[in-house]
Design a protein that fits this description.
Radius of gyration: 21 Å
CATH superfamily: Aldolase class I
Number of strands: 12
Structural class: alpha/beta
Strand content: 15-25%
Largest sheet: 10 strands, mixed
Bound molecules: ligand PBG, zinc ion
Length: 333
């Protein structure tokens, strides 16, 4: 098709000269509808606590969270991903599945006022456990391990309690084997067969979550997450993770992080085009842009819209990003 000698008959610049033509033929359009804003809710009252490594992001008490939601709705953002920071962390992360837990309380408050808000909850234990790992911990001699199967029932319990409080979608992020199946069974048995699961199917053990761990006070107290999150050197394995999640009943897939993993996003979309795919533009990716912009080294608006559009172009249908609010503002101008 592309024979030599087509120039000067074929000139690709012809389609670039006129702004209106460029608008007409643009392949990827970033929309506010595609964005999900992550938010951190904490106990207490009248508190908006800045997160140092994430300028513009805060831990919010429920009353302050309501103010923030009003602002988001005003900007046209309808989708949020909620994370809870409990008053007390313990070995089992009991606050995470308590009907009076921080996240359940927040969801009930939001649902009272906003029927038009899509509330997605992160289903995991690391924000709630004293040791900071994503589930039940066992010890063999001097070795600690995340106990996979004993954690599954607790994950299901947590997901059910989120939905009971009013969550619209649950998003398990722990990278445990069998988590999607356990949560699907838990939801179905509780009568919530219409609630979708957005699985963090392909989640890498990444340094890009550094600022998030400050935000949720959830860094592991010992060890790291490499026995459950994926090795960032692997991409074939991503396909196996997705295939398993689909078999277990996942309704939507996710790749995380996003910016350095566009190849993975592209492969997952090519392999499973029939499933909606999300990408998580993580705290570290946000922090890098904020830092460079803060120094005046990057044009924040241009660089951010470029990165977010590239994530969509790679194959993500929607993006979880701390830039959702600013992007919505920019897209409306
Ligand atoms: C909880 C969870 C994490 C993130 C989302 N859910 C932290 C982790 O796995 O260590 C990271 C989000 C971000 O960095 O923005 N499992
Ligand atoms: Zn976790």
């Amino acid at each position: 098709m592309y024979n030599r000698g087509q120039f000067p008959k074929t000139r690709l610049r012809r389609l670039r000269h006129n702004l209106l033509v460029r608008d007409l033929i643009r392949e990827t359009i970033l929309k506010t509808d595609d964005l999900i804003m992550p938010l951190f809710v904490r106990y207490g009252e009248n508190l908006k606590k800045p997160i140092a490594a994430m300028p513009g992001c805060f831990q919010l008490t429920v009353d302050k969270l309501e103010d923030e939601i009003n602002e988001l709705v005003r900007l046209g953002i309808k989708n949020i991903l909620l994370f809870g920071i409990p008053a007390h962390k313990d070995a089992l992360g009991t606050d995470s599945y308590s009907d009076d837990g921080i996240i359940q309380t927040a969801i009930r408050a939001l649902k009272k006022k906003h029927s038009d808000l899509l509330i997605i909850t992160d289903v995991c234990f690391c924000e709630y456990t004293s040791h900071g790992h994503c589930g039940y911990i066992t010890q063999h001699e001097n070795k600690f391990d995340l106990a996979n199967d004993p954690t599954l029932a607790l994950l299901a319990k947590q997901a059910v309690s989120h939905v009971k409080a009013g969550a619209d979608i649950v998003a398990p992020s722990g990278m445990l084997d069998g988590m999607v199946q356990a949560i699907r069974e838990g939801l179905d048995n509780a009568g919530y067969e219409t609630i979708p699961i957005l699985s963090y199917s392909v989640k890498y053990a990444s340094s890009m979550y550094g600022p998030f761990r400050e935000a949720t006070e959830g860094a592991p107290k010992f060890g790291d997450r490499r026995t459950y999150q994926m090795d960032f050197a692997n991409a074939n394995e991503a396909i196996r993770e997705c295939a398993l999640d689909i078999a277990e009943g996942a309704d939507m897939l996710m790749v995380k992080p996003a910016h350095a993993y566009l190849d993975v996003i592209h492969r997952v979309k090519a392999q499973f085009p029939e499933l909606p795919l999300g990408a998580y533009h993580t705290s570290g990716e946000y922090a890098m842009l904020k830092a460079a912009a803060g120094k005046g080294w990057l044009d924040e608006r241009a660089a951010t819209l470029e990165v977010l559009t590239a994530i969509r172009r790679a194959g993500a249908d929607f993006i979880i990003t701390y830039y959702a609010k600013e992007a919505a503002q920019w897209l409306s101008e």
